Each structure stands twice: as structure tokens, then as C-alpha cells.
Amino acid sequence: MSTLYSRLLDEPAALVGACYDEAFRLTPQQILDIQLSGARRRFADLRARIPVLDRLGEEQGIDDIQRIDDVAPLLFAHTVYKSYPMSYLERGQFDRLTRWLNGLTAEDISHVDASGIKLIDDWIDLLDAQTNLRVFHTSGTTGKLSFLPRTDREWRQNIALSANRIRDWRGPGSGPDLLAEQRPLIAPAYRLGASAAARGGGYQVEMYAGGEENALFMYPDARFSADVASLSGRLSAAEAQGELGALQISPALLAKRDELVRVERERPEQLRRFFAEAIRRFGGKDVYIGAVWSILYDTATEGLARGARGVFGERSVLHTGGGKKGKNMPDNWRDQLIEFLGFDNFYEFYGCSEQMGFCMRCEEGHYHVPPTTIAFLLDPATGKPLPRKDGQTGRFASLDLLPSTYWAGLVTGDEITMCGLEKPCRCGRNGAYLLPAIRRYTEKEGGDDKVICAGAPAAHDEALNFLTELSE
Amino acid sequence: MTKTWTVPLIIRGNVIESDEQRFGGRRGGVSFTAPDVRRHADELTLRAPSMMSDLYALSLDEIVDFLVELGQHLNFADNRHLQQAFELACTTSGLSESILRFHYTRTPRLFQRDELYAIVARSVGADYLEGWVEQPGKLIPGVSARTRAFGARCVHVIAGNAPVVAVLTVIRNALTRSDAIIKAPSNDPLTAMAIARTMIDMAPDHPLTRHLSVAYWKGGDEAVEQRIYDPRRIEKLVAWGGFDSVKHITRYLQPGIDLITLDPKLSGTIIGKEAFADEATLASVAKRLALDIGAQNQEACVSARVAYVQSGTDEAGLARCARLAELTFEALQRLPDTLSTPHKAFDPVLKEELDGIRMFADEYTVFGGRGNEGAVIVSRDGTPVSFSRILGCRVGNLVPVDDISTAVRSVNAYTQTIGIFPETLKAALRDQLAWQGAQRLVSLGAAATLQHNLDRQDAIEPLRRMVKWVTEESADPALIESLAG
Questions:
Q1: Interchain proximity B362–A243, CB inside 8 Å
Q2: Does residue B304 share a domain with residue B237?
Q3: Looking at beta carbons, which residues of chain B come within 8 Å of A449?
Q4: Are B172 and B466 in contact (CB under 8 A)?
Q5: How many domains does chain B have?
């Protein structure tokens, strides 16, 4: 049997199904070989099939990749996957949105006729029905949704890889093999929809839980609507356009916002009911939970207050990538969580939903970049790559070589310190790793007491929020 | 090594440089020290309103004489206070050195005698400042009234994106015989100080010098603001800037304090189909549009950001609009460096947006935007880009339309200035634009360069609101007595 090195050299996606631990035993030279050959292969293949990538290559004057640093100018701004004009959504021009998306995928979706479509949810369903794509969208916290053209095959690779990580992260076979031994799935999320979480959850039901009867979602029959998620952004855009914009939002869509407000209001109660149901159905069993810390912590304190302790089996797994989202939690929050859940088998990762190769957290608290992800730190001012030396701090950017139909090279808004390029982590794993002090560049700005006379609707939005607060 | 600046505290002719606290100094930011205003808050406000009386020993002519002389002392070439303010502004301001130098050099212009009288004539009126003016009206025979405009004790929370704001505030305060406490902004901490120090050098005991204080404290500092924003100590509050700067002020509002807000605004452009009459006209329109976008490096509220262009939206129309965008971008690059330069701190969030749209030729045509040179974007879908509210650093967005009414409907209460081409279109649209919320309509190209006057700002008259309109009435004693029965 060929080595993992030679298989990855041939095709980076060979990481899926392989022993994940082995990927961190490669030598620095092997990692570099895999990355350089993978980047060449993906760029050459995808450039011919993804028009937007071709234009970027042309703009940057890069025809082929000679050195690792040649990849940096080819990374997409994270805004690329949400670069469509808002009017496509407002005016229901889904044929144009399809054409836009066609520019970002190696799959040919030009045959899809979306001309009669009025809602994003319907557009996504149409693409599901007529193409290999299972498009997912971001949650739209910034007000505009990104749409990512990931195929059904890539989704399956993604979910399988996730299981491989859990199985092998602390040594080959150290964790349960979720694909081989199916187990109950618990997710405080929507069962349906095309958000990254809802899509992932759907595949996990099939691949980890073996069916709906072995899964529990907080909203089992509800869909996380892309239309609702995009509405907040559209309302603010409408404001910026004056009367012109206000006219473009249909009453049907405005009604959806009320629905969202209702669901959010009922969330604490739903969360209580959800975990009670989880304990009733799956208490004492080894389960799989995918959730962010803050939700889990709320549930744990609530559960502990009611006397619930050690509710799940000790071979259960918690998979989480969410930060604490600014939530104030006591120093012993982790202990409380373990006391409630009854297991400490936590797998934490850093990653962006656009990519498949997540960075797992090791016992040293470092996030390890898999060999199939080429990580860069960019100078935040110039966008140029910083020297590939340990201890540099800059804007994190990376190319994930796993997806083969869309370009997963992105510049994030995160400020990160990277090591492991020269000296490996004390945990023994080879390759680049990220220090845990990760923060958004935007968090550093603001609050500087500068006063200017230019500006507008953003201030107005805040004013409206303020008024809403006052009237409550 | 970054230099630490010293920002003094100026209270009624006294320069205080002790009890220093450090401010700013975040990554890339400038750090400066300034006296702890908390220790001086009680001296900052005028103890008793009767202490305004010294201003009434001055005639308007004497006030204007003083300002004219002050203007002569504000000569950038030999005024070290202004030079220092300029030097600090070079690091705190969004304007480049060459633009700032131009602004500081032109400061004396604002103190021309004729213009000072014109400011008064356009606003309060000299007769109201100088005495009691008989009022028309005969509702009750035997009752007459006279009105006089009095200065007020006022705090000015000023904006720092251009030094003219500080200059304007000092002039307005003097002409209205008011007492000003200027809260300096962190993006221009020294300009107001420089003017106050020049007044101290020139005439330390003059009433106009003694009725101007300038302080820096961190906006929102309760220990300072609670003691100053008090109706027993001040009567009016002029607040420039965004919601953050006004939000914490609203906590102190109560009967007795009059809040005058000069909200942040955005400005735009409307270009009629006449622009495409021939290549020469188009080139001229492009130059003028570049001025509205580029002047003051698009840092001002008067700077154009989104331009509606009646080019048509079919392929030929989009091509016409793209041609205008191309010419505009070229003109932008050629603007004199006293007006506009590549931005020294190009907004990274805006850069990400530009990088995100550049490759989508069906949706956008983008000229420039690779570095910090600025950009002109054509939205081929006929609506502003979704990041239109953060346009800055010399990035304009041309929106092609078929019908000019689309442009009119885009205007709202946050629209300040609109540059319009041609003049006939301005005349035809001005009432409609006013109904929508627009506040200043100008010839294309003159938005940020050729302001006739600054007395009507954001469709209000700050000078008329800065004074107290006091009425004195007389009634015939017999008439009064008759009411008693």
C-alpha cells in the first residue's frame, strides 16, 4: 500500500478516509511537497473551469504556481462569495444570481432556469434538484449572505473527514469511529435549511446517526430560511437607498421577520425543552453533540440547577468550533459542563465554514493546520505574505486543497499568530499551528473617539436599535 | 518611536499643562497627553451667567475688528501653534499632508471683514445682535415688543475631519457673543487649541479670549460630562458627529439644555443624460465628478459617494456609464494634491469589498482600487453597491439609471449635498429633492470645493439656534389695569 505522503502528493482529498494522525507525522519537506503539488494541480484544473479564478489569475499575472508564496495573491477576499448585487434578491432576479454562482464553481449550472423563482430558499431547492451542488450560505451576521457552491460529494467528504479527525486526533483509533458505529446525534439547531450548520446536520443524520429516528434537533421540522437570514441586511440596504429601497421589500418577506423574532424570543424555552428531550431519549448513551460553547453552558447551568448530572455516556463526543461569542462565563465553566454532560471528550477546532480542512486544538491549546491547507499570514496593511517564520502575527489566509470544484482559498478577517513552520508543537505534531489568541481585526477598531461629519445610515440603524431598546 | 504629543487645557485665557493623562496610542494610533479635565470641570464652565456682561461692552464692529486681527495672526507660515496642530493632524486626520497644509494656509481667508459681516447678515442680523429690534404685530392694541439676540453658554462637541470646523466654531462663538467650551476631537485635538492660544498671545484679557475654553476629554467620560452638561452651567450643546458622539450626550438632556445636532451626512450626485451630448461634455462632467468625489479625500460630509447617472441601463447605456467612470477615475488621479491624494490609510474593509467584486464583469465595472489610488465602480445592475455606506478614500459608485426619478427617490434625510449636472436639471429637481430630504444642491464639481457659505448647515441655521432670542414687551398701564376688573 502506498504511503499517505504519496497519496496526498497525488490528490490532497486522499486525506479523507486516511488516518488523520498520520497527516501530522509528515516531515516539513513532505508537507511542502504536498502543498506545492496540490496548489499547482488545483489551480491548473480549476482555473480552466472557474471564470472568477481565471480573472483573478489574469489580474495578478500568475499563470502557474512556482513557489508557495505565489498562492497568496490568488486567495479570494472573503467578500467574493457574497459579491452579488443585493438587487438580484430584491427584484427576484434568480437567473442572474445563478449566472453569478456559475462563475464560482467548476460544475456547469448554466442549464438551470431560475427565472420564475422568487425566494432564496426556492432557488437553493432548485439547485439541489437540478445540479450536484448543495449550496450553503453563511448566517449573515454582517447583513449579507455568502453562497458557497459545494457539491454533494464534497459535503460527504467533509462530514467523513470530520469523523476521521475524531477517531484519530489523539492517536490512531483513540476516539470512536462515528462512520462505523452509528450513535445518537444531538444538535441544538434547525434540522432543515441551507446554512452550513443545517446542511452539515443533514449529512450527519445520515452518516453518523443512521437516520432521523436516532437524531434530535431543536427545531426538527423547521427550516432555517435563507430569506429570513438575508432580510436584516436587505432592510439596512433599503434604508441606505432611501424611498427607493423601502419599496423593494415585499410584505411576504417582512412577515417572515416577525416569525424570526418570535422564534428567537422562544429560544430559551425551546432550549430547555430540547435538552430535557435529549436526556429522556438518549440519557446514559454515547452520543454526538455539535454545538457552540455558549449554548452548552446555558444548558449545563440550567440542568445542574435541576439536579441533572452526568447525563450522557462517557464515550460521547462533543464537536465544537464556536468561540464564546463574547459571553461571560465563570472560570470553572468547563468543569460545570463536564459535570453536566458526563464526558470530557471535547473536540475543538478553528476553521471557516467555506473550507473543509479545520484546525484541531491539541493538548497544548494550539490549532493544527492540516497538510492539505496552505496557511499564510498577510501583512494587514499591504496584503503581502509575511515571512514563513514562527511567531509572526498577521491576517490569516489559507488555501484548502480538499474541495475540488470551488476555490477554497480565502483571506479571513482574523488576526492570528502562527508557529510550527520551523519548530513543531510540543504535542509532537508536525506542521503549522495557530496560537489561540485569535481576534477579528474589526474588534480593534471603533471606540477611538473620532468625530466626523460624514456618515449616515449606519448611524441610523444604531439609532433604530436604540429606540427599540427604549420602547421595550 | 512614536512621538507623544501634549494637548493643553485652555480655560478662559489660561493654558493648563499639568495633571496629564495619556490618551489614544492604539496600534497605528497617535498617543497624546492632556490634563485631567475632571480636576478642572468646575472652572471650565462660566460660574454665573452675569459674567457674560463683558461681551456686551463690545460693539459688533469691535468684535469683527478682533476677528480680523486674529485672522492675520493665524498665518500658517509663522504661527507655531497652527504649525503644531498641522503636524499632529498629519497623523490623526484622514487628510494627507498636502491637503491639510492647503487648509491651514487658507485659514485667514475665513476672517475677512466683509465675509464676517455677511455671516451676520445672512443669519441673526446685525441689528438683533446690537440692540432691541421693534417687532411687527398688532394682535392686542397697546402691546408692543422688541427682540434681541443674546449669546449663550454653550458646549461644542466638534468634528475633527477638517480643521475648518474648529475655525468656524470660534467665529460663530465670537459673533454671537457666546461663551464656548470646545470639546476637541481625538482626530484633531489641537486646531481649536491653536486658535485659542493665538488669541491669548494676541490679547490675553480680551473678553473674546476669556469666553473661549478648549478641552480634550474622552467622549462619554461621565465624571467630566455630568458636571458640565448641567442646565445650571450651560444653556446649549452643539453636537457634531455620529450616533456614538450624540448617544451619551442624550443622557444629560433635560429642560434647560438646548441640543443642536449636526448629524453625520452623506452626499451624492445626479447626472442627467445631457452629460453624454459629446465627448468634450463627458470629459468635463468627469472632471467635475472627480472633484466632488476626490476633494478633501472624500473625508467630508459634502463629498460625493454614489452618483446616479442617466446613461440608460441597456448595453449601450452601461457602456456610456463605464466610459464616464473611466474618465472620472483618470481625472481623480490628476487632481491637484492640495485637494486630493491617494489615501494614506485606505479603509481595509472597503478594500476587501473592492477585491470581492472586481472579478465579476457581469455585475460591476471597476476602475482602479488595486492599491490606495481610489476607484470608480459602475453597478451594472442599476443599484448602489451593498457597501455604499462605507464608500470613502476616493471610491465613487456610479449607478446607471433610465429615469431620473430613480435618482430622486434615492435621496433621504441623511443626504446632505447633491451635485447636479446640468444646471437646468438642478432647477427642475430642486423642490422634489428638498421634499425627499436633501439639504444643499450644487453645480456638479462644487460640492466640496466652492461653498458659498456655511451658515445654513444640514438645512438648519446653527447661528440662529446658538443665540437666545429674548423678547421685551410693553403694554399700556391702563390696558393692564383694566384686566384686573
A1: no
A2: no
A3: 185-186, 218-220
A4: yes
A5: 2
List, for residues B284-343, the tens digit of each pLDDT value.
Answer: 999 999 999 999 899 888 899 999 999 999 999 999 999 999 999 999 999 999 999 999
Same domain, B230 and B217: yes
Q: Do B358 and A59 touch (CB under 8 A)?
A: yes
Distances (CA, A) of B160 to A147, A470, B157, B192, B475: 40, 30, 10, 10, 49
Strand, helix or coil at A247? coil
Q: How is residue B384 written as a grid cell?
A: 448602489
Residues with Cβ within 8 Å of B194's Cβ and at least 6 positions away in sequence, in order, are: B79, B81, B82, B84, B85
Residue B79 predicted with pLDDT over 70? yes
pLDDT for A230 equals: 78
Q: Hey, is the C-beta of B9 within 8 angstroms of any chain A C-beta? A: no
Alpha carbons within 13 A on the beta-carbon side of A140: 21
How far B370 CA sits from the closest chain A CA (Å)?
A: 10
CATH of the domain at B64: 3.40.605.10
- The amino acid at residue B239 is A
Phi, psi of A396 (to 5 degrees): -75, 135
**Run of H or E residues at A23:** none
B261 touches chain A (CB under 8 A): no
Q: Are residues B183 and B299 in the same domain?
A: no
Which pLDDT score, from 0 to 100, does residue A468 have?
A: 37
pLDDT score at A455:
52
Top-confidence residue, A453 or B18: B18
CB contact under 8 A, A451 and B185: yes
Residue spans of alpha helices (H) in B164-256: 164-175, 191-202, 207-210, 222-228, 243-250
Residue with cell 466638534: B158
Q: Does B297 share its domain with B403?
A: yes
Phi-psi region of B241 (alpha: psi -120 to 50; beta: other; left: phi over 0): left
Q: What is the pLDDT of residues A299-342, one digit of tens each?
A: 888 888 888 889 999 999 999 876 655 567 788 888 988 999 99
Cα R_g (chain A), whole angstroms: 23
What phi and psi values does residue B225 have, to the nearest 5 degrees? -70, -35
Write down the pLDDT at residue B221: 87
CA neighbours within 13 Å on the CB side: how many for A387?
4
**Grid coordinates belonging to B261:** 445636532
Specify the residue for cell string 476516539: A175
Q: Distance of CA A374 to CAs A17, A40, A50, A439, Å?
A: 20, 12, 20, 20
State the pLDDT at residue A352: 85
- The answer to whether position B363 is within a domain reads yes
**What does the pLDDT look like over B14-62, one tens digit per residue?**
999 887 888 875 545 678 889 999 999 889 999 888 999 999 999 999 9
Q: Quick check: B58 and B48 in contact, CB under 8 A?
A: no
What are the domain boundaries of chain A? Answer: 152-350
Which DSSP string do the residues of B330-380 spell out, in sequence order?
HHHHHS-TTT--S-TT--HHHHHHHHHHTT-TTTEEEEE-SSSS-EEEEET
User: Residue with C-alpha cell 477554497?
Assistant: A408
Whole-number pLDDT of residue B393: 94
Segments forming the whole domain that contains residue B206:
4-263+458-471
Cα–Cα distance measured from residue A222 to residue A202, given in angstroms and rounded to the nearest whole number = 13
3-state DSSP call for residue A216? strand
Nearest CA in chain A to B382: A87
CATH code at B299?
3.40.309.10
pTM: 0.86
**B 120-149 near A (Cβ less than 8 A):** none
Residues of A in contact with B352 (CB under 8 A): 77-79, 411, 413
Q: What residues are paired with A186 via a beta bridge?
A: A216, A289
Radius of gyration in angstroms for the set of CA atoms belonging to chain B, rounded to a whole number: 25
Are B279 and B219 in a shared domain? no
Name the amino acid, one letter, at A401.
L
> Which grid coordinates belong to B48?
454665573
Q: Is the pLDDT of residue A106 over 90?
A: yes
pLDDT value for A367: 95
